[in-house]
Amino acid sequence: MLKLLATTLAAAAFAVPAFAMGPDLGKPAPDFAATDTHGKPVKLSDLKGKLVVLEWSNHQCPYVRKHYGAGNMQKTQEAARALGVTWITIVSSAPGEQGHVNAAEANTLTAERNAKPHHVVLDPRGQIGRLYAARVTPHMFIVGTDGALLYKGAIDSIRSSRQSDIPNAKNYVAAALGEIKGGKPVADADTVAYGCTIHYKEGS
User: Fold this and answer.
1) Helices 2-14 and 62-69 meet at what angle, rounded to 10?
2) Which end of the chain is more exposed for a tag (fewer CB within 10 A), N or C?
3) pTM across the whole model
4) What ranges make up the beta strands (E) of 77-146?
């Protein structure tokens, strides 16, 4: 049973959907317009002048549970907020697939986990996810104040679902935000995201 679980997690962590490689670093991040789970409009181009973090999430994914269960994602969100960053959590799981939620369920999860995003956006047709070629959860992106993509990849450097690995890992997102705010280039700007494969709606 444990061997089967390990095999399943490994497949989830490294499987890659067959679509474009996503936006290039230093180029304009793909714009999108959506409505968050509280009915508020969210348009990326309206956030120019601010740093923006995009976090793809699936609450049933063990890799997402690793970071939320340990409070690591919440701490990263709080640190980002303290820097004036806008944090948007996106759920691209298709209806019937792991991690799919409606607005009320998403808001309950946010409250129960004491998460700190500014917006949670549901993307059940996968339109936003495909724009960014988001492949797994968590998959992270940082958009600069000028709208350019400054970071894409993993939340941290240890590709596991174990909470015990978090203290020994480099938090790529926190590090990148600190470097950007300090006027420095991002040392690790393009990393390999790990997690559960996002199951997109077919034919959309």
Assistant:
1) 90
2) N
3) 0.90
4) 86-91, 119-122, 136-137, 139-143
Of 203, 167, 151, 138, the closest CA to residue 23 belongs to: 151
The DSSP 8-state label assigned to residue 161 in this structure reads: S
In angstroms, the CA 6 to CA 112 distance is 28
Contacts of 39 (CB under 8 A, 6+ apart): none
What pLDDT sits at residue 202? Answer: 82
pLDDT class for 203, splitting at 50, 70, 90? low
pLDDT band at 22; cut points 50, 70, 90: confident
Fold type of domain 2-197? Glutaredoxin (3.40.30)
**Tokens at 151, concatenated:** 């970071």
The pair of three-digit structure tokens given for residue 56, joined into one six-digit string: 């793809």
- Strand residue runs (E) in 40-164: 41-43, 52-56, 86-91, 119-122, 136-137, 139-143, 149-153
Helix (H, G, I), strand (E, B) or coil at 70: coil
Query: Does a cis peptide bond (omega within 30 degrees of 0) precede residue 138?
Result: yes
